[in-house]
């Protein structure tokens, strides 16, 4: 089968979604005051009104566990009913052990042996974990899977470069996937173009840049060449989407809801224009959440479900880009 052939549907259903936003809200007006800008500058420049910022006790695993409880409440299941826990954060809470392990403990499952591990594809981690979960369900290894994303962007921002700081927010979201039902993954695809690897970088925290080997100024902060990231992604996105539609056997007019990565106000506007998406079907919550890295897509998904914009039986397109540069998408029947 070629990458353009229609793919068989994986029968599984998203039975629950949930999200958690930190209590503290940082408004763009407050950033104007902090930066000494004229009132309204941050909002007009970046298209964002406010974003949530995690307090010290609001760790990634705490936020994820709260989102998971909300997803399980909607799904009507208990933590001990899970067969697999997949963490899908852009940046982990700590290198070892994984954030999924910490969430398993917070769900009261620390002695159960339920497998828990992380899948990382930066901003597209949720889509990749969704695919891993679907494959486990398809081959009968699991019947009920929890996938969560939680990110705290605020700890790695460099306010000397506000264009790479003001657009981010913190948050978490989770979904429960179950075998059977009326839902399914119609198609999934993922591409990486590593010649853009230096467009979005957080160098510290791995084996190359760390306290033992030294951290140069700025290496512990996220840096972004937004222009390069946009050029690489926009060059490939139209063909990527066309191939995903063919593989799903779906035409654009049959998509009930588009749930994109909330990368930035500009990126969302370009996506609608360049991909010819129906703007009334696009979930755009960027102005009130900012870019929440890997939590961005599942938080928007939870918003779509709870606001009634995504209903049972609808076909939803989940689509985004990430550091790498990578492009990912999934066509889902909710």
TrEMBL record:
Domain of life where this protein originates: Bacteria
Keyword Transferase: yes
Keyword flag Acyltransferase: yes
SUPFAM superfamilies: Thiolase-like
Species annotation: Paracoccus methylovorus
Keywords assigned: Acyltransferase, Transferase
InterPro entries associated with the record: ACP_syn_III_C (IPR013747), ACP_syn_III_N (IPR013751), Thiolase-like (IPR016039)
Pfam family for this entry, one: ACP_syn_III
Domain Beta-ketoacyl-[acyl-carrier-protein] synthase III C-terminal: 245-333
Full protein name: Ketoacyl-ACP synthase III
């Amino acid at each position: 089968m070629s990458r353009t052939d229609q793919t068989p549907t994986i029968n599984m259903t998203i039975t629950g979604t949930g999200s958690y936003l930190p209590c503290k809200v940082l408004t763009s007006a407050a950033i104007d005051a902090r930066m000494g800008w004229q009132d309204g500058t941050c909002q007009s420049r970046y298209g964002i009104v406010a974003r949530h910022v995690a307090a010290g006790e609001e760790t990634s695993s705490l936020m994820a566990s709260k989102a998971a409880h909300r997803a399980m409440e909607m799904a009507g299941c208990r933590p001990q009913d899970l067969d697999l826990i997949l963490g899908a954060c852009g940046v982990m809470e700590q290198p070892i052990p994984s954030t999924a392990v910490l969430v398993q403990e917070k769900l009261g499952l620390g002695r159960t042996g339920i497998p828990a591990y992380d899948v990382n594809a930066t901003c597209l981690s949720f889509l990749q974990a969704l695919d891993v979960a679907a494959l486990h369900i398809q081959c009968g290894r699991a019947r009920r899977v929890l996938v969560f994303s939680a990110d705290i962007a605020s700890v790695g921002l460099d306010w000397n470069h506000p264009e790479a700081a003001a657009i981010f927010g913190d948050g978490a979201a989770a979904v429960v996937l179950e075998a059977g039902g009326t839902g399914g993954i119609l198609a999934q695809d993922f591409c990486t173009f590593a010649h853009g690897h230096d467009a979005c970088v957080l160098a510290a925290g791995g084996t190359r840049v760390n306290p033992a080997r030294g951290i140069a100024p700025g290496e512990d902060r996220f840096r972004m060449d937004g222009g390069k990231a946009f050029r690489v992604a926009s060059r490939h996105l139209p063909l990527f989407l066309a191939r995903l539609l063919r593989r799903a056997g779906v035409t654009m007019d049959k998509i009930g809801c588009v749930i994109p990565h909330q990368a930035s106000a500009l990126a969302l506007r370009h996506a609608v224009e360049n991909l010819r998406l129906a703007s009334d079907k696009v979930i755009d919550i960027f102005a009130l959440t900012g870019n929440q890295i890997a939590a961005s897509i599942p938080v928007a998904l939870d918003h779509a479900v709870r606001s009634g914009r995504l209903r049972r039986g609808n076909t939803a397109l989940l689509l985004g880009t990430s550091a790498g540069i990578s492009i990912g998408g999934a066509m889902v029947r909710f």
